[in-house]
Amino acid sequence: MVMAVVILVAPLGLAIGCVAGYLGGLADKALMRVTDVFLAFPRLILALAFVAAIRPGITSAVFAIALTAWPPYARLARAETLTIRNTDYIAAVRLTGASAFRIVLRHVAPMCVGSLVVRVTLDMSSIILTAASLGFLGMGAQPPSPEWGSMIASARRFFLDQWWVPLMPGVAIFLASLAFNLLGDGLRDVLDPKQR
Questions:
Q1: CATH (domain of 41)
Q2: What is the four-CA torsion angle of 179, 181, 185, 187, rounded to 10 degrees?
């Protein structure tokens, strides 16, 4: 589920942020206001509303999490694009007659990918927690599909007698989230030129 969300979210956030940052003006204001609307709601509540509107299941949970997870990537890509769009090499590309689409696609977006990769790996833990929360509430993966949140929900009745049954999926969620956070921290150290 996490990889499906990332495959949907990262290109969408990158495209919206790069277009908004490069074009500026009315396009920037319109795209960033839409982003602000999505940022105004808590991610889990918005994902829960989207899943309830569609139907419970893995596919709808992936799309609901993807619809709520793209705004931070768009903000980050926009900030990177605003620093890149006035550089000398972008001006040189503009002088060669390249279109705005080509400049964004070939020159601006690749410069934003490094910081976006770090943000994606750091955000994977919150995607795991959102997916597990939806599964716990019965809106994510439906039984008999194995999913950590639904495992914890089905093991609630064993909590007092056999506490290790609901503990194991919780430990798996914790370890996966910690692993992605450590990966993101390591990638930030590797990809940040100021650290070298």
A1: 1.10.3720.10
A2: 70
DSSP per-residue codes, the chain: -HHHHHHHHHHHHHHHHHHHHHH-HHHHHHHHHHHHHHHHS-HHHHHHHHHHHH-SSHHHHHHHHHHHHSHHHHHHHHHHHHHHTTSHHHHHHHHTT--HHHHIIIIIHHHHHHHHHHHHHHHHHHHHHHHHHHHHTTSSSPTTS--HHHHHHHTGGGTTT-THHHHHHHHHHHHHHHHHHHHHHHHHHHH-GGG-
Segments forming the whole domain that contains residue 144: 2-195
**What's the number of domains the chain is made of?**
1
Terminal alpha carbon distance of the chain = 34
Per-residue model confidence as pLDDT tens digits over 90-122? 888 888 888 888 888 888 888 888 888 888 888
Residue whose pair of structure tokens reads 């976006």 in the numeric block: 116
pTM, two decimals, is: 0.81
Give per-residue pLDDT as tens, 145-191. Answer: 778 888 888 888 887 788 888 888 889 999 998 998 888 888 877 77
Evaluate whether 45 touches 106 at the Cβ level (below 8 Å): no
